[in-house]
Amino acid sequence: MSEELEDRFLQFALEARKLCFLLQNHTINHEYCRQLLRSSSSVGANYIEASDSLGKADETMKLKIARREAKESCFWLRLVYIPETTPDIETKRAILLEEAQQIKKKLSAILLKRG
Predict the structure, then answer these.
(1) How far is it, in rounded angstroms, from Cα 17 to Cα 33?
(2) HEC secondary structure over the chain
(3) Is the Cβ–Cβ distance between 67 and 111 less than 8 Å?
(4) Model's pTM, two decimal places?
(5) Are 35 and 59 a contacting pair, CB within 8 Å?
């Protein structure tokens, strides 16, 4: 497993946390942010667990879970409500959504490579 990817996944989770902190005053986002925090941090956690696998099947399963959590993060990022008066937060969400999509693609490529 790549330490570079571990760092990337950690940064993704930290950026999701920052976004949720910025949205904390909007009650409509309470559950969305809760779910986003879980899924975004689960990407890296499952990737790390894959490196401590009990075999190829376990490693593959953990990578698939990480990819699924990246997909879920995309979903929650789309649902988060951002008022029109805060375009800077909308920009942060767009960047984070793009990163989630890139992570999903990266994990898919790793899984394809492993067969």
Answers:
(1) 8
(2) CCHHHHHHHHHHHHHHHHHHHHCCCCHHHHHHHHHHHHHHHHHHHHHHHHHCCCCHHHHHHHHHHHHHHHHHHHHHHHHCCCCCCCHHHHHHHHHHHHHHHHHHHHHHHHHHHHC
(3) yes
(4) 0.93
(5) no
Q: Which residue has the tokens 């976004």?
A: 19
User: Do the beta carbons of residue 107 and residue 66 sit within 8 Å?
Assistant: yes
pLDDT digits (tens, 9 = 90+) for 1-52: 789 999 999 999 999 999 999 987 778 899 999 999 999 999 999 999 998 8
Other CB atoms within 10 A of residue 88 CB? 8
Q: Which two tokens stand for residue 89?
A: 């937060």
Answer for the pair 102, 5: CB distance below 8 angstroms, yes or no: no
Rounded CA-CA distance 23/30 in Å is 9
Dist CA 21 CA 72 (whole Å): 19
